[in-house]
Amino acid sequence: MGSERLEMRKRQMRMHQEAAASVLQSQHRMGNMPTNASNACCFCWCCCCSCSCLTVMTEDERIQRSTYERRAEGIANCDDSPKPTLEDATIWTMSFERLMKSPAGRGCFRQFLRTEFSEENIMFWLACEELKKETNKTVVEEKVRQIYEDFISILSPKEVSLDSHVRDVINKNMLEPTSLTFEDAQQQIYTLMQRDSYPRYMNSTAYAELLQGLEEPPPATEP
To answer: Which among 52, 155, 175, 201 counts the fewest CB atoms within 10 Å?
Structure first.
């Protein structure tokens, strides 16, 4: 079973490499080769090689990457998210959009996803939201690369599940990274959570216990 999974990973890797090469060749024939394509290896977006260029970073890049990682760690600590009120938690039943717009809702939902071993879905969605807020081109490129390594690369333990069409779109977008590089992928993961994980959370013991805890009156204080 383990050898079959390894062979499947190898086949997927070859497919991604061939797709990337095909995109670069077509761009070259059309005369639309992006300025950074000639040094595509140094962007290393596919995360499937071991080239030494990955270790070469300017001091600014190191600072930017460190800042990104610290911010990601802060987002990852969903235990520190605001505690919901009973009204907040009740509103979440109205729609997945209501849940995701609530900081407390995202925190509680994320804790549930963690128990289902699918926390990477909301982590990816949150990372894309952070990326959309960025306007500095250099920082955008670094964040795009980091998100790819963390959630798109088939070598990542936090790889999200995306169909081949969306992966092809990402591979093309990686040639000229922008804050919307993962827009299609983010929408697909959002829809997956909405249709699959959200109904289970609404019917889960975790949500029922949350409501029960919020409904209980606070202990009476002594005069």
So the answer is: 52
> Structure tokens of 149?
């390594």
Q: What is the pTM of this model?
A: 0.67
How buried is 144 (Cβ within 10 angstroms: 0-12 exposed, 13-18 middle, 19+ buried)?
buried
Question: Helices 137-147 and 59-76: crossing angle, nearest 10°?
Answer: 60
Contacts 24+ apart (CB under 8 A), 11-15: 12/154, 13/48, 13/154, 13/155
User: Do residues 186 and 124 touch, judged by C-beta distance below 8 A?
Assistant: yes
First to last CA, the chain: 66
Written as one letter, the residue type at 210 is L
Q: Report which of 50, 19, 53 is spatially closest to residue 36, judged by C-alpha positions.
A: 53
Q: CA torsion sign, 36 to 37 to 42 to 47?
A: positive
Angle at Cα 75 formed by Cα 74 and Cα 77, nearest 5°? Answer: 70
Per-residue pLDDT of the chain (223 residues; tens, 9 = 90+): 445 545 555 555 555 455 444 444 544 444 544 444 433 433 444 444 434 333 344 445 444 444 444 444 444 444 567 899 999 999 999 999 999 999 999 999 999 999 999 999 999 999 999 999 999 999 999 999 999 999 999 999 999 999 999 999 999 999 999 999 999 999 999 999 999 999 999 999 999 999 999 987 666 666 5
Distance CA 29, CA 124 (A): 34
List of residues 6+ apart from 64 with CB closer than 8 A: 138, 139, 142
